[in-house]
Design brief:
Blueprint lengths: L20 H8 L3 H8 L7 H23 L3 E9 L2 H14 L7 E9 L4 H14 L3 E5 L4 H12 L4 E4 L10 E5 L1 H16 L5 E7 L4 H17 L5 E6 L4 H14 L3 E6 L6 H11 L6 E5 L3 H8 L5 E4 L2 H15 L10 E3 L2 E3 L10
Parallel strand pairs: 1-2, 1-3, 3-4, 4-5, 5-11, 6-7, 6-8, 8-9, 9-10
Antiparallel strand pairs: 10-12
Helix pairs in contact: 1-2, 1-3, 4-12, 5-6, 7-8, 9-10
């Protein structure tokens, strides 16, 4: 009778940790002797028991992190240049997420600008640098002066997370928000599917500012259309004055001389802009087959439910802001790991899956 070879004891990659055997035993629910055998790689221990010890150490690591930030208060400045309808959604989303960040306590100072000049944004960034802060969540245009201001904050150990639209050449520690180039390409893909092989031009509506997010959306949209639907003309309306009336007038002017416009892609967040486009089509007694917009705010939600919009490309604001706060805590050493950019997935919202809340 041949003897069966004895299975080697399960291996345990013993990590460096500061915990006593008694702590690990209490966390895992195992006996002191069992934990001691696992830690010292003695035999007579099942693989499942080894995994229980490993999990107990991982759980103790997490608890240690929580203890490290318990009772600490972090002051965060949220600086957003965007229409009021978007900044209201940002504030509501962040305030909804703050309780989930405990045991850390984050206090936020909000600096919202409906139509800020670069000088105004530089002024508030300078005030933050002088007053001190544990971090900045920033949505601003990609301009050299603002890039330099982010560098100044970083040198003062005030980390900056860019939000929704990036400043990739700056010293920001992370970017959170939608992948804008992918969002633009997604809009083009949906547009082509809906329009099919029939003809027709597309009206592209955008703002006049230097927000990189809009630039990337446009690049993604045009690249996709150029590759797969190059014969279709793309006509542009630019909101030069941040006023819905400008969009209405510009859209009517384009429609008056271009009878083949059948679709609209609106890539910006100007207040009332999408409603102005809808009104312009009605004023010209024209109809469109497809209208794709961005961000599920109150205005776009209403237009979507009325079937004035075909789809809204959206991203989870609460998730984005939660990630932004985590990145700032990581940059401050309060959470383990390096702060990393985390682009959000593009959500396609139709009248059939529109959520009840805006964020």
């Amino acid at each position: 009778m041949k003897s069966r070879p004895i299975d080697p004891p399960p291996t345990f990659a013993r990590p460096k940790h500061p915990y006593r055997i008694r702590e690990i035993a209490a966390q895992s629910g195992l006996s002191l002797a069992t934990v001691d055998r696992v830690l010292h790689r003695r035999g007579g221990v099942r693989a499942g028991t080894v995994r229980e010890v490993e999990q107990a150490i991982a759980d103790l690591d997490k608890q240690r992190t929580q203890l490290r930030i318990a009772g600490r208060t972090f002051m965060v400045d949220v600086i957003v240049a965007s229409p009021a309808r978007f900044t209201a959604a940002v504030q509501a989303a962040l305030e909804a997420e703050l309780p989930a960040l405990r045991p850390a306590v984050l206090r936020c100072r909000f600096h919202f600008f409906d139509s800020a000049s670069p000088a105004e944004l530089l002024t508030v960034l300078d005030k933050v640098a002088k007053a001190g802060s544990h971090g900045v969540i920033l949505k601003a245009p990609d301009l050299p002066g603002l890039v330099a201001a982010v560098g100044k904050l970083t040198r003062q150990a005030i980390p900056v997370v860019t939000f929704v639209t990036d400043l990739p050449t700056s010293a920001r520690c992370a970017y959170v928000g939608i992948d804008n180039r992918a969002a633009g390409a997604t809009a083009a893909y949906l547009m082509r599917q809906w329009l099919g092989a029939s003809g027709g031009d597309v009206l592209v509506v955008r703002g006049h500012s230097s927000f990189r997010g809009e630039d990337e959306r446009e690049m993604g949209f045009r690249a996709e259309m150029r590759t797969h639907d190059k014969k279709r003309r793309l006509l542009e309306v630019v909101d030069e004055e941040d006023r819905a009336e400008t969009v209405h007038t510009g859209t009517r002017a384009v429609l008056a001389v271009n009878p083949e416009v059948r679709a609209v892609y609106s890539m910006y967040a100007g207040a009332g802009g999408n409603a102005a486009v809808v009104d312009a089509f009605e004023s010209e007694q024209r109809r469109y087959d497809v209208f794709i917009a961005h961000d599920l705010d109150g205005e776009n939600t209403a237009l979507l439910r009325e079937r004035r919009l075909s789809a809204v490309l959206h991203h989870d604001l609460r998730q984005d802001l939660r990630r932004a706060c985590h990145a700032l805590l990581q940059a401050q050493g309060a959470l383990p790991g390096p702060a990393r950019s985390q682009p959000s997935a593009v959500q396609v919202i139709t009248p059939h899956n529109a959520p009840a809340a805006e964020f």
